[in-house]
């Protein structure tokens, strides 16, 4: 943590979050941590509320998510392994309950670790591909991210136990590819957001089209009220 500038996690959160938050009507975001020992008993968790409130993990806006992230860094002890499946399954449970196309879920995962539960994660992604959700993974730090590339189904669709995902729902990018050499963080964040969000529209449309869900009628265009001013001479 540096009091004067965002770390890579903060930059990725802001870069992606500040764009996708515009598509969320209430701007309340559940934020989850994974891979930490939690107070008071030191149990290891891969699915804990960043704000410390498991009953209500929602944060207000991206600023609220950032606040919860920094608060949790001070209270938990970071700990391996790096398991993705619990968080993916958590979001998939919500997405599975929305069948009418009124909501679409985007899960942003920011990680510095090599994935530890690859088989379970593939199974989770194959399962989640049936629901209205997409997954963005941003890898930070110098680790080898070969396994993450495997989850990004651009070349070969993700499969588990011989079953292929219904559609590609994962986009992975290594953050180090976007760090501007001149230290221009604004440029780094803009490039990152452009690339990680590039596939979301097609993923969203592929889900809706396969399900035969049509867009709701557009609201009527706004017409300003006409004020009639009467003057008497």
Architecture overview:
This protein has 233 residues and is α+β, with helices and mostly antiparallel strands. Helix content is 35%, strand content 18%. The protein has helices at residues 8-20, 61-75, 85-96, 118-128, 146-151, 185-197, 200-210, and strands at residues 28-30, 32-33, 36-38, 43-45, 48-49, 58-60, 77-78, 105-111, 133-139, 159-160, 163-164, 170-174. The longest helix is centred in the N-terminal third of the chain and has 15 residues, at 61-75.
Tell me the structural class: alpha+beta
Low-confidence stretches: none
How many strand elements? 12
In spatial order, strands of the major sheet run: 4-3-7
How would you sum up the global shape? globular
Keyphrases for this structure?
single chain, 233 residues, alpha+beta, three-stranded antiparallel sheet, globular
Structure summary:
With 233 residues, this protein is of the alpha+beta class. 35% of the residues lie in helices and 18% in strands.
Secondary-structure topology with pairs:
Layout: H1 8-20, E1 28-30, E2 32-33, E3 36-38, E4 43-45, E5 48-49, E6 58-60, H2 61-75, E7 77-78, H3 85-96, E8 105-111, H4 118-128, E9 133-139, H5 146-151, E10 159-160, E11 163-164, E12 170-174, H6 185-197, H7 200-210
Parallel strand pairs: 8-9, 9-12
Antiparallel strand pairs: 1-6, 2-5, 3-4, 3-7, 10-11
Helix pairs in contact: 1-6, 3-4
């Amino acid at each position: 943590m540096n009091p004067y500038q965002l770390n890579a996690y903060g930059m990725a959160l802001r870069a992606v979050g500040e764009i996708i938050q515009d598509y969320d009507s209430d701007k309340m975001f559940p934020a989850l941590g994974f891979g930490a020992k939690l107070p008071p008993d030191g149990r290891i968790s891969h699915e804990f509320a960043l704000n410390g409130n498991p009953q209500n993990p929602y944060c207000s806006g991206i600023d609220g998510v950032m606040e919860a992230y920094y608060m949790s860094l001070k209270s938990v002890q970071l700990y391996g392994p790096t398991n993705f499946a619990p968080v993916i399954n958590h979001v998939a449970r919500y997405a599975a309950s929305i069948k009418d196309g009124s909501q679409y879920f985007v899960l942003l995962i920011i990680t510095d670790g090599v994935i530890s539960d690859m088989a379970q994660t593939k199974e989770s992604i194959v399962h989640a591909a049936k629901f209205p959700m997409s997954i963005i993974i941003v890898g930070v730090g110098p680790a080898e991210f070969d396994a993450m590339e495997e989850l990004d189904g651009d070349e070969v669709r993700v499969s588990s136990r011989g079953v292929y995902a219904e559609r590609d729902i994962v986009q992975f990018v290594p953050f180090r590819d976007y760090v501007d050499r001149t230290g221009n963080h604004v440029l780094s964040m803009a490039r990152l957001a452009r690339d990680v969000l590039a596939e979301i529209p097609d993923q969203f449309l592929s889900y809706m089209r396969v399900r035969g869900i049509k867009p709701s009628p557009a609201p009527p265009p706004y017409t300003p009220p006409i004020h009639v001013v009467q003057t008497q001479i």
